[in-house]
């Protein structure tokens, strides 16, 4: 590398890192949302669909490891359709400027992506109620939409977490409590420390009290254990509606197993690097050997609502006859008390 090129790179780096006048905003980046257009290879490569945003099923929450605005813009442009929530882990927002966080959250919202504070609230909780309220106030001001309420490191009762849920709602944000088989950072989780009935009770209580979703920590289930705890997973997955649960999966084999057992609409908490792989697995395009070419979906309302799919002549003719007879019956019998609503299958 020439000395002139090296000097130029160092000059750009200094301006980027230290000169606040060169701080870019989402409006100056020229970010474009291209997801409303036609997808590539639609006529040749089969693919399952996914619900449109905002959705409750097939949700992907990804860790956002303190990205800059430019990198985030690339992420949104490339993966914006199938990322629903970006979660800042490790309390990372404490190490970033407010202006940057505000711009990032505003940019993500343009793509229907919400931001979560991650589990740092349990660290704030140790500083007392005043600190908690200041934290929630600032989170709402910056534009955070979801607040995780975890107790993996801090000893806090179920009642206190329910009170935290109410406080989060008071600030207009969505509470997302987390439950775990493990307590603290452990290398090998002793699953006997926490009985599954406790987890089930907590999940059902959170859902009943209006949790937006409940995050299921992977430690003790598919991570840091010699053998996966299948029995506990099945108890958790059947104790509440799946759309209310979000399973953490750092392993592609793990979320492939969940999809094999419960279908592609399971909600997952994953690393950002796995977002595309998870989406291709959900859609049946790709995946591990256990699910490759085997994932399918069907929803008759999706079929009926698509104008691109042909409707048979018989079905169309039957609709017209039923429609005419229905209107005639209503006109001839004004006292008929039933409201008759007739819809063409393509307009349902």
Over the alpha carbons, how many angstroms does the gyration radius reach? Answer: 25 Å
Number of strands: 8
Order of strands in the sheet with most strands: 3-2-1-8-7-6-5-4
* Shape verdict: globular
Q: Helix/strand-derived class?
A: alpha/beta
Pattern of helices and strands: HEHEHEHHEHEHEHEHEHHH
Summed over residues and divided by their number, the pLDDT gives a mean of 83
Strand content: 5-15%
Instruction: Report low-confidence residues grouped into runs of 5 or more.
Output: 16-23, 307-326, 334-348
* Number of helices, where a helix is a run of at least 4 consecutive DSSP H or I residues: 12
CA distance, first residue to last residue: 63 Å
**Major sheet details:** 8 strands, parallel
Structure, described:
There is one protein chain. The protein is of the alpha/beta class. Helix content is about 40%, strand content about 10%. The protein is built from 12 helices and 8 strands. It has an 8-stranded parallel sheet with strand order 3-2-1-8-7-6-5-4. β5 (about 175-180), α7 and β6 (about 215) form a beta-alpha-beta unit. About 30% of the residues are buried. The model is unreliable at about 15-25, about 305-325 and about 335-348 (pLDDT under 50).
């Amino acid at each position: 590398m020439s000395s002139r090129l090296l000097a130029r790179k160092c000059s750009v780096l200094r301006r980027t890192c230290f000169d606040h006048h060169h701080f870019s905003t989402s409006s100056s980046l020229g970010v474009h949302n291209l997801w409303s257009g036609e997808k590539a290879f639609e006529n040749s490569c089969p693919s399952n669909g996914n619900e449109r945003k905002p959705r409750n099923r097939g949700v992907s929450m990804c860790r956002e490891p303190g990205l800059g605005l430019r990198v985030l813009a690339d992420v949104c442009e490339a993966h914006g359709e199938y990322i629903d929530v970006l979660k800042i882990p490790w309390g990372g927002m404490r190490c970033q400027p407010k202006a940057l966080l505000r711009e990032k959250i505003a940019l993500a919202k343009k793509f229907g992506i919400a931001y979560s504070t991650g589990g740092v609230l349990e660290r704030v909780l140790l500083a007392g109620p005043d600190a908690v309220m200041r934290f929630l106030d600032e989170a709402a001001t910056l534009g955070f939409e979801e607040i995780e309420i975890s107790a993996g490191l801090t000893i806090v009762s179920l009642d206190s977490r329910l009170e935290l849920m109410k406080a989060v709602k008071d600030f207009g944000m969505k509470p997302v409590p987390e439950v775990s088989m493990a307590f603290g950072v452990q290398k090998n989780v002793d699953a006997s420390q926490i009985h599954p009935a406790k987890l089930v009770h907590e999940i059902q209580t959170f859902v009943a009290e209006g949790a937006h979703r409940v995050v299921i920590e992977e430690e003790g289930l598919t991570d840091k254990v010699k053998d996966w705890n299948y029995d506990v997973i099945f108890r958790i997955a059947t104790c509440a509606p799946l759309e209310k649960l979000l399973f953490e999966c750092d392993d592609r084999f793990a979320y492939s197993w969940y999809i094999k057992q419960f279908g592609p609409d399971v909600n997952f908490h994953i690393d950002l690097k796995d977002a595309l792989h998870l989406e291709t697995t959900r859609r049946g395009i790709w995946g591990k050997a256990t699910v490759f070419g085997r994932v399918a979906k069907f929803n008759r309302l999706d079929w009926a609502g698509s104008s691109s799919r042909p409707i048979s002549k018989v079905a169309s003719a039957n609709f017209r006859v039923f429609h005419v007879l229905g209107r005639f019956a209503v006109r001839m019998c004004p006292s008929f008390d039933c409201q008759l609503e007739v819809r063409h299958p393509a307009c349902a």
